[in-house]
Design brief:
By secondary structure, the protein is mainly alpha-helical.
Length: 138
């Protein structure tokens, strides 16, 4: 998304910086709330002979940066295909996991991985460049 912004392309939605700010703000707010919850649950509540109800921990869902996740998927698959010379022939959303604690991506089901030669990789790279330049001759 930052690359699109630097090229002057119109980008909708929050930028990486804005999402990082809001994620940090939400996590900081939850830490503050949970500090108060810990004091109430483990210091004040026992002093009242457990008359007070136990409070739940704050765990606000963090906003996801979907554009960054898609960029990462393109980078991973591009590296696999053009540099490593292999690709997953069964790549679809069902084989992509979102690991919630840190919002990381996990790729599963690599049973259809195929290997391509250096010449095939070079031909593919030329094709990608020709499509990007809208070169109908190549």
């Amino acid at each position: 998304m930052a690359l699109q912004e630097t090229r002057g392309e119109e980008v909708t939605g929050a930028s990486r910086r804005e999402l990082a700010f809001w994620r940090a703000w939400i996590m900081g707010r939850d830490v503050g709330i949970n500090f108060g919850v810990a004091i109430r649950n483990y210091l004040i509540r026992p002093l009242t002979l457990f008359w007070l109800e136990k409070r739940e921990w704050a765990a606000t869902p963090l906003p996801m940066n979907l554009a960054a996740m898609i960029d990462l998927l393109f980078q991973v698959h591009g590296k696999q295909l053009l540099i490593d010379g292999c690709f997953n022939g069964d790549c679809h959303p069902g084989n992509i996991l979102l690991l919630h604690p840190h919002q990381q991506l996990g790729l599963i089901d690599c049973g259809q991985v195929k290997h391509i030669t250096l010449e095939q990789r070079l031909q593919l790279a030329r094709l990608i460049i020709a499509v990007a330049k809208k070169d109908k001759k190549k």
